[in-house]
Write a structure and sequence with these properties.
Elements lengths: L10 H17 L1 H4 L3 H6 L8 H7 L4 H9 L16 H13 L25 H4 L4 H21 L3 E5 L5 H9 L3 E5 L3 H24 L1 H11 L25 E4 L12 E2 L2 H4 L2 E4 L1
Parallel strand pairs: 1-2
Antiparallel strand pairs: 2-4, 3-5
Helix pairs in contact: 8-9
Protein name: Methyltransferase like 25B
Pfam family, one: Methyltransf_32
Organism: Mus musculus (Mouse)
Length: 277
């Protein structure tokens, strides 16, 4: 299966690809949202068009994969027992046309060229306990949310299913957004609370170790009192197409500082956080 690679597409072509993908996914939503157990509990087979049932009935998984993907194994010949309905053939052709390429085209992000285990675009406190892949994800996603926040004027973010709160901490303490984190797993909530306190202690040590640097940065920004700590991005110019937040200062809380039982991340702290530009 050749697939589509977004790297060589223009902005308009990418937009059209997104529109096509959204339209197809919406049309087949009932199939995509189905769970295996629902095949038995909700009789999902009976929800398929009758013509599809006739064409697919009796095929084992390897045969079904061969016919749908069009990729026979060595020595195997593709044989259709009957003529497939046009709607099923249309789904097969559409899926092949819109599928992303499986050909490896990975290039190491510039932030991991110096050290494959540490992102150069995150300061040490925000890298702790976070795997390289997750470091890259929280930085890119956090900066995207910050950019959208600046464009829309929305400064409050809800992180649903926040897990251990890595993204929430970066958005709140690193980028100055007001973040509310929701997590239903109590084990992850306790872990997130522990990491919250650990990060705050680390940032407090950084401030005490370099008080003059923090004060100098704040004066340069034209702000009043010294910042509590620097942003989640290291000093120096950002890389290509990379942005970096300013200095984060904690002000007086805007509301109650209690933590919800289903919350993770520094929600109490972020309520008074603001970004110094």
């Amino acid at each position: 299966m050749r697939g589509v690679s977004a790297h060589g597409l223009s902005h308009e072509e990418r937009r059209q690809l997104a529109v096509d993908l959204t339209r197809v996914l919406a049309h087949y939503r009932s199939i995509l949202d189905a769970y295996i157990i629902e095949f038995f509990t909700d009789s999902l087979w009976g929800t398929l068009p009758h013509s599809w049932q006739e064409a697919l009935d009796g095929l084992n998984p390897p045969q079904l994969a061969t016919l749908l993907l069009g990729m026979p194994r060595d020595g195997e010949e593709m044989r259709y027992r009957s003529v497939w309905p046009l709607t099923l053939l249309a789904l097969k052709s559409t899926a092949c046309a819109l599928a992303f390429t499986r050909t490896p085209g990975f290039h190491t992000p510039s932030e991991f060229l110096e050290n494959p285990s540490q992102s150069s675009r995150l300061t040490a406190p925000f890298r702790k306990h976070v795997k390289p892949k997750k470091q890259h994800e929280i930085r890119r996603l956090g900066e995207l949310v910050k950019k959208l926040s600046d464009l829309t004027g929305c400064t409050q973010v809800v992180d649903v299913g926040s897990g251990q709160g890595h993204l929430s901490r970066f958005m709140s303490l690193g980028l100055g957004l007001m973040v509310k984190s929701l997590e239903g797993n109590q084990r992850l909530v306790k872990r997130a609370q522990h990491l919250d306190q650990e990060l705050l202690k680390a940032l407090d040590k950084m401030e005490k170790r370099h008080p003059k640097i923090c004060e100098t940065r704040v004066k340069a920004s034209g702000s009043g009192p010294p910042a509590a700590f620097g942003s989640g991005c290291p000093p120096g110019p950002p890389g290509p197409r990379e942005s970096c937040g300013g200095l984060l200062q904690l002000g007086p809380p805007a509301g109650p500082t209690g933590r919800d039982i289903d919350s993770t991340g520094p929600d109490a702290l972020s309520s008074g956080a603001r970004l110094l530009c």
